[in-house]
Design a protein that fits this description.
Layout (H helix, E strand, L loop, with lengths): L1 H18 L3 H13 L12 H10 L5 H14 L3 H4 L4 H8 L6 H16 L8 H4 L7 H11 L9 H11 L7 H14 L5 H15 L39 E3 L10 E2 L10 E2 L1 E3 L3
Antiparallel strand pairs: 1-4, 2-3
Helix pairs in contact: 1-2, 1-12, 3-4, 3-9, 6-7, 9-12, 10-12
This protein binds a DNA duplex through helix 3, helix 4, helix 7, helix 9 and helix 10.
DNA sequence: AACTCGGGGCA
DNA sequence: TGCCCAGAGTT
């Protein structure tokens, strides 16, 4: 049956990788090295806590960007117990430069929830995990499949691209597209070898089935892929230009210090330090 | 359902 | 300069 074939091919590729006994797997292996996807820090010493932190950092943020932030965060807070003592300000400081700072505030909120509701131990059930702030369907699925090795689907940018091409369905931000891709992701998610499947499909999406120039020749699933060797679909997206907003500041400073204020509005920059805002309507 | 995220990398 | 990235929360 075709639906099983997809992950079987992925799994067999992964097994070949482990043994590195064919030209084919050697080619894949070289792709990994070229793209730096071997020895990703969150793939070492796998734990729910480390996968949680990495998955949140990886939301809409590229692997290469996340690596130094993950290592720094883990060196400060190697486990949940250490993190339980952190302030929101501590966590935000480690997030400086990574962007999407709501994620850092949600890490703080989530660890407080874990302290209050889960005896300061990382929850083990999908419904508990997805209840944590900053954890949605895909991140919860990633924690379940990677850390707990239970059969749950994910839908990140890699899976969207691989599956939409493999099945020949549209991949855009419309709710109908997202819904269909979730259905297909669930269909392809195997009951066994879930860890290998999840890592494998993301690796293929990141290295072989990439956005610009997919390498169908070396793709392990090209025989059953609807879009294999076909020209890349051109996304025609009418992008709206946002009107420019001006924000005015006054910065008070001495030769040694600057005066900043913690922003409390929830619209944007919540909890972040900014100069005095003037004349903003 | 659309919009946003003190963002960054890459062609 | 524009598109993309291991998405989620808010309006």
């Amino acid at each position: 049956m075709k639906m099983m074939r997809f992950y079987q091919e992925l799994i067999s590729t992964n097994n070949k990788l482990a043994h590195k006994d064919s030209e084919f797997s050697l080619g894949i292996s070289n792709w990994y090295k070229k793209n730096g996807r071997e020895n990703l820090p969150w793939r070492e010493d796998v734990s729910p806590y480390r996968i949680w932190i990495s998955e949140v950092m990886l939301q809409q943020t590229q692997v290469k960007t996340v690596i130094p932030f993950f290592n720094s965060f883990i060196s400060h807070y190697p486990n949940l117990n250490k993190l339980s003592y952190a302030s929101e300000e501590n966590i935000l400081a480690l997030w400086t430069g990574l962007g999407f700072y709501r994620r850092a505030r949600n890490i703080y909120k989530a660890k407080e929830v874990i302290k209050a509701n889960f005896n300061n131990e990382f929850p083990t059930k999908f419904n508990e995990i997805i209840s944590l702030p900053g954890v949605g369907d895909s991140t919860a699925g990633a924690i379940m499949s990677i850390a707990y090795k239970e059969s749950y689907p994910i839908l990140d940018a890699n899976v969207k691209r691989v599956i939409s091409r493999y099945e020949g369905v549209v991949n855009d931000s419309s709710s109908s597209s997202i819904k269909e891709l979730w259905t297909l992701s669930r269909k392809h998610t195997p009951l066994k070898s879930i860890f290998e499947y999840t890592q494998g499909i993301m690796d293929i999406g990141a290295t072989i089935c990439n956005t610009k120039t997919p390498e169908c020749k070396i793709c392990p699933v090209h025989r059953s892929c609807v879009s294999a060797f076909s020209t890349i679909e051109k996304k025609v997206i009418s992008k709206k230009i946002n009107p420019i907003k001006y924000i005015h500041f006054e910065l008070a400073y001495t030769d040694k210090k600057v005066l900043l204020f913690k922003r409390h509005k929830k619209t944007f920059w919540e909890s972040l330090w900014i100069p005095y805002e003037t004349d903003n309507s």
